[in-house]
Amino acid sequence: MTDNKFELAKLEYELVQKQVDKYDDISSKIKTWSITLWIGILGWSFQSKRHELLLLGIVAIVIFWILDTVNKNFRQDYRARREDVAAALRQFSESSSWPSSFSTPQNYTHRFRGIFKQLFILHLTLVYLPLALLTLWAYFSY
Q1: How many Cα atoms within 13 Å fall on the side-chain side of residue 103?
Q2: φ/ψ of residue 105, rounded to 5
Q3: Rounded to 5 degrees, what are φ and ψ at 53?
Q4: Residue 25 CB neighbours (<10 A)
Q5: Which terminus of the chain has a smaller tally of CB atoms within 10 A, N or C?
């Protein structure tokens, strides 16, 4: 029984880590697409001499910012489970006993709790806020 639970916990740890890696990859793609679209809208606005198009850039930035925040929230759910499994595996390796509340595998449900708070996490804000501020600056100084 213990060997089986150990193998299940180890497998769950690997699968959860793959999910965390997947969400990291999605986040990179979201950031890449947001910057690409932002540059395209900025260039289109300057080329057509229509500064109203810069507002479209703000809309695009906000949409990608929200998408990245939701993605980050999902990643955090898997990260929390990875830490629980890692702690259980650590305890098992040290004392040959499992934590009393630990069971494996577990089903995952994503909750949308704390999304607004995560919207302003520094590493998300450092990408999207400067783009939004630059766009506003360009709009009002055009």
Answers
A1: 3
A2: -80, 170
A3: -65, -20
A4: 11
A5: N
Unique residue bearing structure tokens 């793609």 = 29
**CA 32 → CA 15, 103, 107, distances in Å?**
26, 38, 31
Which helix (DSSP H) or strand (DSSP E) does residue 107 occupy? Answer: none
d(CA 90, CA 24): 25
CA distance 78 to 109: 10
Residue at 60: amino acid letter: A
Take residue 71 and report the two structure tokens written for it. 């993605």
Cis before 105 (ω within 30)? yes
Digit-coded pLDDT (tens) for 82-109: 999 999 999 998 998 888 888 887 777 7
Report yes or no: 68 and 138 within 8 Å, Cβ to Cβ. no
DSSP 130-141: HHHHHHHHHHHH
- Cβ(62)–Cβ(107) below 8 Å: no
Q: Which of 68, 79, 54, 52 is nearest to 119 (CA)?
A: 68
Q: Binning pLDDT at 50, 70 and 90, where does residue 119 land?
A: confident
Rg of the chain, C-alpha, whole Å: 21
